Amino acid sequence: MQTEIYSTIQNRIRSGEYTPGEKLSENLLATEFNCSRMPVREALKHLEQDGLVTIQPKSGTYVRGYSPEEIRNAVEIRAYLEALAFTLLIEKNVDTTPMERCIVDMARCMENQSFDLAAFGEHHMQFHGAMVRLADNPFLLELYSRLHLNALQKIFFDPMSREEMALTHAEHQKILQYIKDKNPEGEQFIKMHLWKRREH
To answer: Fewest CB atoms within 10 A around its CB: which of 33, 72, 90, 164?
Structure first.
């Protein structure tokens, strides 16, 4: 039950159904899911760890909002962490199959007439997350997780047009090729790929 509640609220925040600053009622959620407040409370704690909500003692739980400066700072740090992950990947000669699957899934999203930007954004984030995980450095992964990129996903991708999606997809293919070629120039390319999103 807790997992279902977590996933539902997460999707509502990402889709914009729940907006930044909106208060989430434990009582109403418990009624909706026909459960006690305990699984709702645990789901909200998990969402807070992910950076999607803030829990204020004696006040309640609110959908978290991010300022332009916070977003810009997160993107800048993310770029350097992913550049490090790239370097580790080419040093360790890892199997990039998980990243290749993400690229295929991104292409499928662009082929759909429904223009599913949310799904495209999800596969995009999975590509970058897979790159960091494949670097096989627990401390790097911990630092990366602290950026709460899942919470910022909607902000990153809402403004994208179909043309921007195609360009982003092509850049991901290029990143993957840099890794396969063990080309160190990919480190700087990744930084530029991500820094473009600083001003969005």
So the answer is: 164
CB-count burial class (<10 Å; 0-12, 13-18, 19+) for 186 = buried
Residue-wise pLDDT tens digits, 134-174: 999 999 999 998 887 766 665 555 557 788 888 999 999 99
Residue 100's nearest CA partner among 193, 163, 173, 25 is 173
What is the CB neighbour count within 10 angstroms for residue 29? 20
Looking at residue 18, its amino acid is Y
Cα angle for residues 8, 10, 11 (degrees, 5° grid): 65
pLDDT at 171: 95
- Residue pair 117/157 in contact (Cβ under 8 Å)? The answer is yes
- What average pLDDT does range 12-27 have in this prediction? 87
Q: What distance lies between CA 68 and its chain's CA centroid?
A: 17
